[in-house]
UniProtKB/TrEMBL annotation:
Residues 18-309 form the PD-(D/E)XK endonuclease-like domain. This is Dna2/Cas4 domain-containing protein. InterPro entries: PDDEXK-like_dom_sf, PDDEXK_AddAB-type, Restrct_endonuc-II-like. Pfam families: PDDEXK_1. The lineage of its organism: Bacteria, Pseudomonadati, Bacteroidota, Sphingobacteriia, Sphingobacteriales.
């Protein structure tokens, strides 16, 4: 919307739009899910949403495998940060740390389901939606997720394919879980790099993966990180090495790219932003019907908002 300055001149209001890989993935999986996350559950948008308070609560729910994946990332971060400070954790310590975080999430989920309020020094653990909705028992879920985390962390700790990454994280200029942003004329492109470090004549960027290989979308995520390294750090394109580290498979897969592919990635981001911009008006007006529900059983079964989604 245009604005008028003090001298009567028309000025163009800067667009405050954010793009991130997670936002893109949410809308791609289900537009209605995107509405709940970024409009219905927002404090600043969709003010007329009648179920806002409930949506904001349900935003705290997360599927068990996502909780486990986030915990694996936290455990790896803790290991690398301690190693950089000269404290070398044993594998048993890394797994124990991860199990503790999972136990906390399971206990918090049980408390919330039972209506128990508990104070936390920092951010409360995630609420595991399978436990909230009662689709699985805590015992079964704990055993399943603990085994998945154990496998991922053991692969990270022991496999030669990941040794170079562990060593690279020790470099004084390495960045571990660095939040990044690019500003394209008022449009913020955001993300978080799991690991970046200098090596010989290049910079290595690593993205830890605990799920399956979704090559196209995860490639876009890594290319976004390359854009940031090139545009913000001034690293030449030929000096950037990208890797997807698939922890459960024990594979470090390089992503080869060219300047043309980076231009395509940037164009894709700007195209996505145009689509998200078109949704802003409907979202701000709390018009959830404008965001179609995917109605895919597998997606719906893992949706935190299944309690309120009519799927119409």
């Amino acid at each position: 919307m245009d604005q008028i300055d003090l001298f009567g001149n028309v000025t163009v209001k800067a667009l405050k739009m954010r793009w991130s890989f997670s936002r893109l993935g949410t809308f791609a999986a289900c537009p209605r899910l995107g509405y709940y996350h970024y409009f219905g559950g927002s404090k600043r948008k969709a003010a007329s949403e009648p179920q806002k308070e409930r949506i904001q609560f349900l935003k705290q729910l997360s599927a068990g495998h996502l909780v486990a994946g986030e915990i694996v990332h936290k455990a790896i971060r803790a290991y690398l940060m301690n190693a950089k400070d000269g404290q070398n954790w044993k594998l048993s310590q890394v797994i124990s740390f991860a199990n503790m975080l999972l136990d906390n999430a399971i206990q918090h989920s049980a408390d919330i389901t039972a209506g128990v309020t508990r104070e936390y020094d920092h951010r409360a653990p995630a609420i595991i939606q399978e436990l909230f909705y009662g689709t699985v028992t805590a015992v079964i879920l704990k055993d399943t997720l603990r085994e998945k985390m154990r496998l991922s962390l053991t692969q990270f700790y022991n496999l030669p394919d990941f040794q170079g990454f562990r060593n690279g994280a020790l470099h004084e200029n390495s960045l571990i879980e660095r939040k990044i942003s690019l500003d394209y004329e008022g449009i913020l492109v955001e993300g978080a790099i799991d690991l970046i470090y200098p090596s010989a004549d290049n910079w290595v960027i690593v993205d830890w993966k605990t799920g399956e290989n979704d090559s196209e979308e995860s490639s876009l995520q890594l290319l976004t990180y390359a854009l940031w390294a090139h545009e913000e750090l001034g690293v030449p394109l030929e000096s950037i090495s990208l890797f997807k580290a698939f922890l459960t498979e024990g594979i470090a897969e390089p992503l080869l790219f060219s300047a043309q592919e980076l231009r395509r990635a940037k164009a894709r981001i700007l195209q996505d932003i145009e689509l998200l911009t078109e949704m802003e008006g409907f979202g701000d007006a709390a018009n959830r019907e404008a965001f179609s529900a995917c109605s895919q059983p597998k997606v719906c079964a893992q949706c935190a908002f299944q309690e309120i989604c009519s799927k119409n």
